[in-house]
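Raw record, unedited: NADH dehydrogenase subunit H
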Amino acid sequence: MDTYMFLIFVFSVLVFPGLLFTVILSLFTQYLVRKISARFQRRMGPSYVGPYGVLQPFMDFWKLLRVKELVKSKYSMQRVAEISLLIGIACITGAIILLPIGLFNVRSPLDYLVFFYMASVMPVLALVLASLSTPGPYTSLGVSRLLSILTISEPVYFTGLFVPCFIATAGSPMLLSIGSASTRVMELWSHPVTAVILLLSLLALIVALQSKAMYPPFNIPEAEQELIAGFETEFSGPLLALVSLLHDMDLTVSLLAVVYIVLGGPAPFPHFSLGGVVMVAFKYVALLIVSVAIKNIFGRYRLEQALIQLLKYGAAPALAATLLAMAWLLLPPA
C-alpha cells in the first residue's frame, strides 16, 4: 500500500465514512428521532442548543461523559464494560467502510457476511457483556428480555439483507458483495417477481429495525414500569454515554445498510453526485420517519406478544422472500 492509499485509508477510518462521520450522523439521527417524536406528541423537542436544537444530542452526550461514574456494587467491573462498549463502537466504525460510501471502499466476495458480523453481532455481544459487567436484578431481567427479542430480530435482519444481496449478485464473481449488490439492486425493482421479493424483504427489515432499536412496540428490555431502565439500569456517566452512542450508531449503520442493499443507495443517480447524495439522504430519512411513526403510534407489547408479532410480520415475510428467491434462481424461466 503506497502512501496515498494509506492516507486515504486513515481518512476513511477516522473521518469519512469512519468514526467522525458515523458519530455525527448518529447524533443527528437521535436529534431527528426526538424532534419527529415531539411533533407526533405536540411538543417542541430539542430547540435551544444550536440551530433548531440540532446540537442537543451532542451536549447530552458531552455532559454524560464529564459526569463521574458511580460504582454501586463491589461486583461491578467498570473497565470491562467500557472496553466492551468501545469494541462495539469500533466494530460499527469498521463495518461502515464495507458500505459503498467513501473514497476507500473495501469490496470482495462474501463481504456481506463480514459486515453483518461487525455491524450486528459484535454490538449486541458488546452491549450484553457491558450490562452483565454491572450486575443487578433489573439488569439481568433486561438482558434476558433483550436476548429473547434479538433471537428472532437478528436472523430476520440478516435474512432481509441477505436475500436482496444474494439475488443481485447471483452468478457474479462478487457473490454477496455489498458494493456490487447496491449497483444492481435497482434493476430488480423493475421486474415484478423480484420486486415482490424486495418488498417482502423490506417489510421484514422494517420490523427487525424497530426491534433492534428497541423502539415501541418492542421496547420490552427497557420497560420503565417494570424494569426501571432494564439492561441500562446500572449505567451512569460515561458508560451511559457510550451505551447511548452505541445504540445510535447501530441504528444509523443498520438504516444505511437497508438504503444501500435494498433501495440501491444513490440510484438512479451516480455515486458522489449531488443527486446521489440527496437520494441517499431522502431514503435514509424516509426509513427513519417510518420507524419513528411506528414508535409513536404503537404501545409496548408484552414479551410473548412481541415474539409472536416478530414471527408474523418479520420472520414470515423474510421466509417468504427466501423461498421466492430460491424459486426465482433455481426454476427455469417460463
